[in-house]
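On clarity, I found the account of how folds are encoded harder to follow than it need be. For illustration, here is how one protein appears when written out as sequence plus structure tokens:

:::
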Amino acid sequence: MLDLLVSARRAVVDGAQRPADVAVRVGRVVDVLPFGSAADAEEVVLLDDDEVLLPGLVDTHVHVNEPGRTEWEGFTSATRAAAAGGVTTIVDMPLNSIPPTVDVAALEAKRAAAQGQCYVDVAFWGGAVPGNAGSLPALHEAGVLGFKCFLVDSGVEEFPPLDDAGLVESLEVVAGLGSLLVVHAEDAAVIAGEAPVVGPGYADFERSRPPHAETRAVSRLLDLAEQAGARVHVLHLSSADALGPLASARRRGVRVSAETCPHYLALSAEEVPDDATQFKCCPPVRGAANRDRLWEALRENVIDAVVSDHSPSPPELKAGGFAGAWGGISSLQLGLPVVWTAARARGHGLADVVRWMATGPAAVAGLSHKGSIAVGRVADLVALAPDETFTVDAATLHHRHAVTPYAGTTLDGVVRRTWLRGQRVDVAGAPRGRLLGRQEVPVA
């Protein structure tokens, strides 16, 4: 007897959309059967004709901020938003919480804060900051999926950036551990050489963090990673100019992956109103022509993943114009419809979206038991109505604060149901999410 059988006229399986019955026992997919198989199960769910069954999304770039800055976001609100948006696994970034996750004690504090609060599964990145290279092996053994560093000011004083010597040291440690360094790659010297932001226009802010800052930092990172034999991941790529160095490094055998974000694929600098700081993020949203090149890179598999970089703050920190506002976009609940709306307009299908937002991020983070509907994988599932539209009302989102650049936007794709390990997620009920470690592996 199966625990659950989800029967779908359309399901994304093996990289394509087809009819399927997904059989679940003890939280795992145990078979993918032909549609209408009538297998025995304690619960049988027949999706509506307008619904498509997807694997739960994996978002490897989320700033939950708890403990220490829970007033910005928290595990309860963030994971509710994730579940409502079809995301069944998040990986929490090591900064903006206090303490940052730069040693085992801080990781334990974060896990204690998250315990019992999570509506989806949560894993953690460790942090690489000046002077903590000796702490990375213990963090690795404690289960972090890899380590994040900045090459430019992070925006919070307790998580300073690495200089070249610190970057080399971290790369060598990470290589020795067989781990991964995920990098905010903007060049501090380039940005320091730009004039400060003074006006209300978005163009002034974008100019202050030019594409060259990304290209130079990415190129330097790739050269140093090649010398160290380390595996690296470029975070939130906004500048298409950096795609050339990425492709070249891969041809040389450098182990590098890259992500971009929904806001870089759906928004454009030309459309941002004056003083609309809900659009501010670092690196910035760039122009429409640059956006087209990012889409082409996704089509050509130069970019491996699309993740939210959900980096919320209280509304008062978004005041002060582009010069002083916090740089972060809240979109965890909206990533799937934002990307789907833009993707279908460019001729992409849901199988592409699954590759970018589920399979790809899971592979980057080493979560091999997540990200696809296949035998042995965790039964994280989403019923999406891809043709149903809705208009974003920020006040109805589960994020802690009603701040998002998508407010008032009409989007395609409504998440109707989410399952975590074969159990329906009820964001008004008890949380059932687990805290994951690097050691967790799929059960055959």
In short: Residues 211-228 form the longest helix (18 residues). The longest strand covers residues 2-13.
